[in-house]
Amino acid sequence: MYESRQARQTIDPFMSFLPSTFGQRLRWWRAHRGQSQLALAGAADTSQRHLSFLESGRATPSRDMVLRLAAVLDVPLRQQNALLLAAGFAPVWRESALSAPELKEVTSALDFMLAQQEPYPAFVIDRRWNLLRANRGAVRMVDFLIGPPPKEPPPGPVNLADALVSPAALRPVIANWEEVALYFLRGVQADAAGDGTPATAELLARLMTYPDVAALARAVPAEPHGPVLTIHFRKGETSLRLFTTIATLGTAHDVTLQEVRIECFFPSDAPTARLFAQWASAAENPGS
Fold first, then answer.
1. Do 110 and 263 touch, CB atoms closer than 8 A?
2. C-alpha–C-alpha distance, residues 55 and 30, integer Å
3. pLDDT digits (tens, 9 = 90+) for 119-133
4. 1.10.260.40, 1.10.8.100, 1.10.3720.10, 1.10.10.10: which CATH number matches 2-86?
């Protein structure tokens, strides 16, 4: 109970779920982005008086004004739809399943990126770190570190954020777990602040309930030892040292696609690169 209360206190700035009216939502986003009424009005080509009336509910926005203000405030597509609904308009941005036929070309591109990353690991995840797909290098790495997945898959998607911080998953095999987890938590906090959705705030709250995480979130990052943070996986006598890149799809016009991320792992040293090459070779030539 104490740690749950402590976790809530740690993330209070990111738990202010958006209010219901358009004016309240607009004021929330403006404050969240650190914009004054004058600055936002100027950027959106309107008057400060009109913006004040919109926030107070004394004026009703046009559909174009909602979209203009959302663009200036860099509101994610999911929350742009919410702003439109609050103002009495239908959503503009669709949200498709990744398997939808209209996303065929995009999913082919994702598969191409995963294949090009072989023999090194790559994952496709959504904004809340739910696993959408992975390449063979990723499967081999996870199988080595924590064993193959259960025959009966758990309900719901696999969440890589939970896997990173849970003592029952990857945490025991990350030699520099505190350093990695602190950096990762900063990223989730930024996500929670950036998208303003309950789902991302709830993910952050859930991560804070794991042992030691709430205390870790208040720690000061250590002085960096290199140009990038290396994740040091260690199991028995085997070490894997990797760094990651995260890519997003540009100019997305679909909520799902805007929230997709592609995380690619690269070896930080020659022994790690050789080991992944050996694993790939053994998988392709099992009898040799």
1. no
2. 10
3. 999 999 999 999 999
4. 1.10.260.40
Provide mean pLDDT across the span 136-150. 92
Residue listed under structure tokens 């350093």? 179
Helix (H) or strand (E) holding 255: helix 255-259
Average pLDDT over every residue of 68-88: 95
Q: In the numeric block, which tokens belong to residue 274?
A: 């050789």
| Beta strands in 41-192, from DSSP E residues, in sequence order | 122-125, 131-134
Q: What is the percent of the chain with per-residue pLDDT over 90, rounded to a whole number?
A: 76
How far is Cα 135 from Cα 122, in angstroms, rounded to an integer? 6
* Residue keyed to tokens 């914009």: 35
Instruction: Pull the structure tokens for residue 13.
Output: 């700035």
Write the pLDDT tens digit of every residue in 26-39: 999 999 899 999 99
Q: What tokens appear for 163 in the block?
A: 């896997």
Q: Where is 243: in which H helix or E strand?
A: strand 238-248
Q: Which residues of 34-47 are buried (b: 16+ CB within 10 A; e: fewer)?
A: ebebeebbeebebe
What single-letter DSSP state applies at residue 125?
A: E
DSSP 155: S
Helix (H) or strand (E) segment spanning residue 248: strand 238-248
Strand partners, 241: 232
Nearest residue to 179 via CA among 237, 239, 248, 225 = 225
The rounded distance, in Å, linking the Cα atoms of 259 and 81 is: 14
- Tell me if 2-86 shares its fold with 101-176+230-284: no
- Class assignment of domain 101-176+230-284? alpha beta
